[in-house]
Specification:
Layout: E1 4-8, H1 13-29, E2 32-39, H2 43-46, H3 55-78, E3 83-89, H4 92-103, E4 107-113, H5 118-124, H6 127-134, E5 138-144
Parallel strand pairs: 1-2, 1-4, 2-3, 4-5
Length: 145
């Protein structure tokens, strides 16, 4: 039975569907939920030749991620579930897996939207596919079309 669940949440359509599915699983198993939003690395970490680093832009981006995360946590809390949120910065796969390890999660839930065309799939990659190889526990991939 799942007692600790990590939900990778970005507010997208697939993220919303994952939130709904996660809600049902958590309600059924009385699990604690941790929503995690992964913000990409700022340009300063990538390197000065990669672009211009703007600390104000980074603060705005983090505030945006926090708003999305807070909305998801509120939805779950309004439904009577124990939920908390965390915004982290870095590679999505690494950060989601690290969070699951840190809290001792039994399940990771992530949304996935099928991409049209081979070029889109090649260019963007798949967090959910990579996460399956890195995860310390089961992974539920919620698919939207």
């Amino acid at each position: 039975m799942y007692k600790k669940i990590v939900l990778a949440y970005d507010g997208s359509e697939s993220g919303q569907q994952a939130l709904l599915d996660c809600h049902e699983i958590a309600q059924w198993s009385q699990a604690e939920l941790t929503l995690i939003a992964v913000m990409p690395l700022p340009l300063s970490v990538i390197g000065p030749e990669g672009g211009v680093y703007d600390p104000e832009l980074e603060r705005e981006e983090k505030a945006h991620f926090q708003e999305i995360l807070d909305a998801g946590v509120r939805k779950l809390a309004d439904a009577g579930l124990v939920a908390r949120g965390e915004v982290v910065t870095g590679d999505a796969v690494s950060e989601i897996a690290a969070c699951a390890r840190r809290i001792g999660a039994n399940l990771i839930v992530v949304g996935h939207k099928h991409l049209d065309g081979w070029a889109a799939r090649w260019w963007r990659g798949s967090v959910s596919r990579s996460l399956i190889d890195d995860a310390p526990c089961s992974v539920l991939v919620v698919i939207t079309r």
